Amino acid sequence: MTNSTNRVSRRRVLGATGPEVSALGLGCMGMSDLYGPADEAESVATIHAAVDAGVTLLDTGDFYGMGHNELLIRQALRDRNRDDLAISVKFGALRDADGGWHGNDNRPEAVRNFLAYTLRRLGTDHVDVYRPARLDPAVPIEETIGAIKEEVEKGRVRHIGLSEVGTDTLRRAHAVHPIVDLQIEYSLISRGIEQAILPTARELGIGITAYGVLSRGLISGHWTPSRRTDDFRAISPRFQGENLDHNLSLVEALRAVAAEKGVTVAQLAIAWVLAQGDDIVPLVGARRRDRLTEALGALDVVLTGADLARIEAAVPADAVAGERYAPALMAHLDSEH
């Protein structure tokens, strides 16, 4: 595994009409929110290291740290060529000063408002992929996509994406304007999209940007049974009691496969997602340079048919214990309905 400049030479295209991006993207959420305190200087250094290594896709949300994440990205990109990068932004989540969550607002007037603030915080004149973070049940998806389409026509948005929606919403949105990618959780232990969502996306020519490829660190190979957290994973069913014990036993089975390949568990898990199709771009949520270097090493992992069979045997599709979110959060996922 190396850490050389521009080592990420592989490229993938987001959907039939989207931009060409690096085969791995950097998810920046954890640098500002939801995973406990982060070192800002190390976060900037990690973004620098990713871009210098050839990562061209940066993913954020305007509500990550209530705007902090966008400001962080602006700071990190001051001396980098913006035109070489694709910035993906989620919008719509309503927050308060205590970090609370109060639903989603995807009205057309809200779209225009959120985008104006995003452009100012990022210090840019356009967003490469703009997407509602969650479906707003009070607003028809056609209205939301129609409002983003207007921003595409004005040049302030280049492409439209979606996040955590089901097949019906995907089809309705795509009928208004081409959707380049669906951002959704996909990993060895989160494979629900394989049943209907992934086939529908492929039928429509929509790419997948997969988040949670290490299931919030659970299948990174770095989580231990005694580890405790006071971030949002504390309420995640997969990190609770017997569920955690069971899920970590899956990781140990995966570790045996990784050891034979001479790679880490995290690299094997990321490589598995990469191997599921050239229309899938995994997002890695590295907050530190060492974790980024490890993740980039997945690009060097070649999985044979025998390797994939061994991975499937170690971690069958339905083997995980516990849902991927707590019940209250699962209720807001159109993709789960």
TrEMBL record:
<dbReference type="Pfam" id="PF00248">
    <property type="entry name" value="Aldo_ket_red"/>
</dbReference>
<keyword id="KW-0560">Oxidoreductase</keyword>
<dbReference type="InterPro" id="IPR006311">
    <property type="entry name" value="TAT_signal"/>
</dbReference>
<protein>
    <submittedName>
        <fullName>Aryl-alcohol dehydrogenase-like predicted oxidoreductase</fullName>
    </submittedName>
</protein>
<feature type="domain" description="NADP-dependent oxidoreductase">
    <location>
        <begin position="24"/>
        <end position="314"/>
    </location>
</feature>
<dbReference type="InterPro" id="IPR023210">
    <property type="entry name" value="NADP_OxRdtase_dom"/>
</dbReference>
<dbReference type="GO" id="GO:0016491">
    <property type="term" value="F:oxidoreductase activity"/>
</dbReference>
<dbReference type="InterPro" id="IPR036812">
    <property type="entry name" value="NAD(P)_OxRdtase_dom_sf"/>
</dbReference>
<dbReference type="InterPro" id="IPR050791">
    <property type="entry name" value="Aldo-Keto_reductase"/>
</dbReference>
<dbReference type="GO" id="GO:0005737">
    <property type="term" value="C:cytoplasm"/>
</dbReference>
